[in-house]
């Protein structure tokens, strides 16, 4: 539309541009919303902070005005902007808690109260559609602090949970909650806790034997990211932005402590400084704390006490010195659980090389993917702690891993640095909605790259997006596969672990150099699904691989239709439990697929936690034989009842499922057979009556020459025949075995196949082949099994 003084306005999408033809700028303000930022994915019942960038494109300042936010049919809420100069932009944020799932249209409007006269009154509104999805499992650190010691401190995956109170009432909680986090920690750490019903709420009465005090009201309480929530733990729904759930034994007035270190890598005898702070719930701030028995404690990784350093300086700082090499844990405590809550734990490593007194160095993994899928960078980088995501990009350029990085620090739509270009692929600020977006550990950034600090082991992905509002990993995309880095393997070794665990959604990538490092350090690699249902273990030296090659692994449950297709192939007498998972691997070098051969067996762990199982001891892993289209039992299956897991080893990957062997069908009583005797069985033989009884029942059949050879050793084939007859099992017509040394023309073929069907026998692995050794004498151990 044409405007006064020769200015023209172009645009009809809520944005737009003024172009000068002649004269001066418009004599009124002109408010537009140039961008709506919604941290995605958006989950049901999880609060989000959504931001509108309001810009004044007019020629004069806009006086006070309101900006409104409306989600679907919910009532609109408003925020007031107290003046906005010509040519300036301002972020306006709204808190929104989606009530249900589905597509929701967000409607944002500048000058919603229509309080000012604008050059253009028709460009104030901006719409954005978002997809709200149910909340899945959340990975979060859980710390449980008892009266005198730390009970648990580790990361767990929290999903729906069932809490059974001491009164015996089960509570099914469909969301990941703070109480669910304690439940998962108890399972992982092997400690008990007791929940109780009280006034319609769930309360925690006891953890690891420490009970609430009904007189003083001291007892078990919780915080999330230091804050004491106003709702019960069963009602506090965790989100992906939450970092830690803290359960502690204390009083209502106890303050959380926090400790930080100026160095984490030192030499023997080198001094480093710990700073101790306390959290104030009144104003949500941290302040230095000292005296009152506050101290910094140092322990070994195995829990052995090393030293204690009182905090006496008003700054909250205390100097520490360690003389022996090795890893240590440092935390702060107040000596009285009614006043202070034990702090977080920080790790410090003492080595002969040390760190020269400088800042500690961390390692991150950087991946940069261009608009056409180009792999611009995929590398581990060492960088000083305290640096930002943007610093990592510049470090990659300085090392020659990237050719260029272009940044705009004056983009009016953002509070910090805006990355316009990488390796010559550029979109300048304000030119369009394509451009570079960043994820850290599969989570989209909600701040600018120079405002987000990186941590050791972070996975940083820069990716070209065709819409700046379509964040990778959000609705419509599965996100980048989880990548295991060399630094994670090295950290596992440094921490004295035998394995490094990487949690994946469905897909994980392992570079050749990472596998080679794991082999060198003798570290096993475990890929674990987020819900904990399947774990794939790769032992050191699992395959031959080059540094530049990439191993990709997917663990995906079959769709409902596919599941039905494969379940019909399960024979009668067997009951599948849980989902069918298809596990695939590919080995690539520069996008060219290469042949893959496993040098060792792979170990799989399937969880039956939460499944309806009749007899857990009858569970076993089964794989689908693609050649004969049958489900076959895995002879190495082992049930771990205390963990509700089944572990088995396989020489190759396929489709897998847990199957329970049901009780064998009972046969009608057979007619009593006549006494059967054998010509080599003398009347005075000690076992004459037993042998003749078993022969009469059809359990023992003897040899074609009329003998039973009572002194002969029983081999594995013969014992298997005795076993199936004793149990009254019918032979399975058309049954097959997985054993390479049991052939269809052998007299015991159907007998072994029947025993395999019911999971009664196991074999041996020889040169990646399953063998049965039918002629080997049976041992007492094998009979017992």
Features:
785 residues; mainly beta; Immunoglobulin-like; Ferric Hydroxamate Uptake Protein, Chain A, domain 1; 6 domains; eight-stranded mixed sheet
Helix and strand arrangement:
Blueprint: E1 7-10, E2 17-20, E3 31-37, E4 42-43, E5 48-56, E6 65-71, E7 77-81, E8 89-96, E9 102-110, E10 125-133, E11 138-145, E12 150-158, E13 161-164, E14 170-173, H1 178-189, E15 193-198, E16 201-207, E17 210-211, E18 219-224, E19 244-250, E20 255-261, E21 265-266, E22 271-280, E23 285-288, E24 295-300, E25 305-310, E26 317-321, E27 326-333, E28 340-341, E29 346-350, E30 361-369, E31 375-384, H2 389-398, E32 405-408, E33 418-422, E34 425-426, E35 435-440, E36 443-444, E37 459-465, E38 482-484, H3 486-494, E39 499-504, E40 507-511, H4 512-520, E41 524-529, E42 534-538, E43 550-557, H5 560-567, E44 574-589, E45 592-594, E46 602-607, E47 619-625, E48 630-633, E49 638-640, E50 645-650, E51 655-661, H6 688-696, H7 716-726, H8 749-757, E52 764-766, E53 769-771, H9 780-784
Parallel strand pairs: 4-10, 11-19, 20-28, 21-29, 30-37, 38-40, 39-41
Antiparallel strand pairs: 1-2, 3-5, 5-8, 6-7, 6-9, 9-10, 11-12, 13-14, 15-16, 16-17, 18-19, 20-22, 22-23, 22-26, 24-25, 24-27, 27-29, 30-31, 32-33, 33-34, 35-36, 35-37, 40-43, 41-42, 42-46, 43-44, 44-45, 44-51, 46-50, 47-48, 47-51, 49-50, 52-53
